[in-house]
Each structure stands twice: as C-alpha cells, then as structure tokens.
Design a protein that fits this description.
Helix content is 25%, strand content 27%. The chain is of the alpha+beta class. The strands form three sheets. The chain has an eight-stranded antiparallel β-sheet with strand order 13-12-9-10-11-14-16-15, sandwiched between helices. Strands 3-2-1-4 form a four-stranded parallel β-sheet. A hairpin with a 2-residue loop joins strand 9 and strand 10. Helix 2 packs across helix 3. The termini are far apart.
C-alpha cells in the first residue's frame, strides 16, 4: 500500500512539491480553498478546505490515515503543516516552536549568545518610538512578517517614515545596522539534526527596503567561511528549537568575515530558491527530502555542487534586463516570465515584474 501525503496549499508555489510527491508514487491529498487552486488537477485528492481551518484538516488527515504533512516556500502553509502534523503525531517542528520562530525578537535573543555569531543590538516597541530613540543607523522591521514587507533603513538623514496603514499598530524591532554581503542558507532538518544543502549569494536594492534583485548558487565563499557557516547554521536552528523540515536562514557577512544572522525562516526559500535553484545547482533532490522528512523516512546524503544557477528579478531597479525578455531564449535560460506592465519601484519582494532563471557551468552576469 503506497503512503499518503497531505499537501497544504494549492497555489503555484506548491505545484513543484505536488509533482514531486506524484513522481515518488505517493497518494496525494491537497488541502486548500478551491479559488485559484492550480494544484487541484495534479493531485489524487483535492479537499476544498481553507488552510486556516486547521482542525478540519486534522480531522480529514485522521480519516484518510495520512502518513505525513508537507508544504514548501510559504510560511503560512508551513505553520499549518506544523499544527496538523503535530496533532496526528507525524514528524515536524512543534507548532508552538513555529510561532516562536516567527517572532524576530525571540530568534534574535535566542541566537545572540552563539559563539562565533556576531551580536546585534536590538529594541522592540512601536515604530514611532523606536524611530526617534534607537541609535542610528539601524534597520526597522515588523517583529512578525516576511518578504521584506515593512523593512526600512533609518539613517541620520531619515526625517520621517511612510508606513502602510496595517503596519502602524504592529510591534517593530529596531536592529543595529550591519554593513556586508547578504546570503541565505538552505537546510534540511530531521529529528533535530541539521544538514546544510546550499548557500545562496544575494543582490538587493540595499537601503531603505533591501528588496532582493538576484540570487546565485553556489555562493562565492572561501572554504574557511563556508566551513564557518556550516558550523553555525545547525547551532542557530537548534537554538530556536527547529526540529524537522526545510529552513531558509538569512545571514550577512562583513568585510572582516564576521557572520551575522538576519532571520530564520522555518520553510524552504521562496523566490524559486528551494523549488528550482537547488535542484539546478546541486545533485540533491531537496523537494524529495522534504517529503521524506514528513514521512519519517529521510536519510542524510552527501551533497555536491554540479552547476551554477540563479535568478534575476525584473523591476524598475533592474530595467537593464528588459532586452532579455524578448527574442530567442539564450542557451543558459531555464525559465523567464514577464508581466509586461510598467516597471515597479519595489518596496518588498512582492513587487516585481518578472524573472529569468539560469543554469550554466559558470555564473551568468547580465
């Protein structure tokens, strides 16, 4: 009898993991609201329940004797996975831990004592109070949030701050600004043991919103720095209580090779990092590993880089890319998408006009 996997969410971001589960010969049950459910026709069983009705999903998982619960690249669905999997006694990071990890203050205070990780000064409060009192320069960000939404750089010349109405009442965290190069680290964890999968080099707009423009794998790092990151990431994940699943840890390295934590995301990296780029740049089947963890059958394997892969995002900040969206595809292009709308000046990672994914025997610079 084949194993049964529950997939939380049916949007475009969950399509790769639905397809991977089918490829593995699993019986697939997908839970999501039917509107916009593009995975509906891919899975064996589509059950139209909102992902926010978690107890109803638990009931259905018990009814169908589900063997594991999974999703990818979405913090909302990952939170539901933790809740449901814990309720039906399947491998996961506990739901209570998930809620803690979503709190950036908790993560910062839990990881600041780690030996070898740069210490970052912080303060939590309402944005207007922090704006006027915290030593500049600093980064102001919502205590809970994702995709750089609400993140602002405050320097000595910042006189006022424009925030969306929904952010004016939430708690913010002010953090000492660290100058350096950004990276993200993809990992897979199972029963409290953590394995680094890939390190991604990032290019962003910088201040004030730090919107991400490019991702490149593998990151260009010395063996000494790479070893340091491979040592620190398991310590970071253990310190915040992460147990099982994929994670996306964002870090920054200054010109003295000091490593600083930006944030811990308890899910695979978005922006096609975990769904596509890792498979292009390594010999590791990341999506398969996520599913095996969920089913309780994962066994660590050696991971080797096999190619260079990356993604360029189109927006007003990267208008130079427009020439690559028309005409014939280049041999290094894996995928490209363009909405053909006026180019946006991105304020978060949600504000973009398109992307180009590449894979080559060298880093592609365009």
């Amino acid at each position: 009898m084949c194993k049964r996997i529950a997939i939380i969410g049916a949007s475009f971001g969950q399509l790769p993991i639905c397809l991977k589960a089918k490829e593995m010969g699993l019986e697939t049950y997908c839970f999501a609201w039917s509107d916009g459910a593009i995975c509906k026709d891919v899975v064996d069983h589509f059950i139209p329940i909102s992902i926010f009705e978690m107890d109803r999903i638990v009931e259905q998982c018990i009814k169908y004797k589900i063997d594991g619960v999974v999703s990818n690249a979405s913090e909302k669905t990952a939170t539901v996975v933790a809740y449901v999997a814990e309720k039906i006694s399947k491998p996961c990071t506990p739901y209570s831990t998930f809620l803690k990890i979503q709190n950036k203050e908790y993560v910062r205070r839990a990881t600041n004592p780690i030996d070898g990780l740069g210490n970052v000064k912080l303060e939590v409060g309402k944005y207007d109070s922090l704006f006027s009192t915290f030593p500049r320069p600093f980064v102001l960000k919502p205590v809970k949030g994702a995709a750089k939404k609400g993140v602002n750089f405050i320097d000595k010349d910042t006189c006022e701050l424009e925030l969306e109405e929904e952010l004016k009442t939430v708690d913010f965290m002010a953090e000492q600004y660290i100058d350096g190069q950004e990276y993200s680290v993809e990992s897979i964890s199972y029963n409290g043991k953590h394995q680094v999968v890939q390190i991604t080099e990032k290019v962003s707009t910088g201040a004030p919103h730090f919107v991400e423009l490019e991702h490149h794998q593998p990151a260009r790092l010395s063996s000494l720095l790479k070893d340091k990151i491979y040592k620190l990431i398991p310590e970071i994940l253990s310190s915040v209580g992460f147990v099982s699943g994929a994670s996306h840890v964002e870090i920054k390295i200054d010109n003295q090779n000091n490593v600083y934590l930006i944030e811990v995301n308890p899910r695979g990296g978005g922006d096609h990092i975990s769904n596509i780029l890792v498979a292009l740049s390594t010999d590791f089947d990341y999506l398969k590993a996520m599913i095996e963890v969920a089913l309780g059958i994962y066994k660590p394997t050696r991971i080797t880089d096999k190619a260079y892969a990356g993604i360029y995002f189109l927006s007003a900040y990267s208008s130079r890319l427009l020439e690559y969206f028309s005409g014939d595809s280049k041999e290094w292009m894996v995928e490209r998408s363009w909405d053909r709308k006026e180019l946006v000046h991105s304020c978060s990672n949600y504000d973009r006009n398109g992307y180009i994914i590449y894979c080559s025997d060298k880093k592609i610079v365009i």
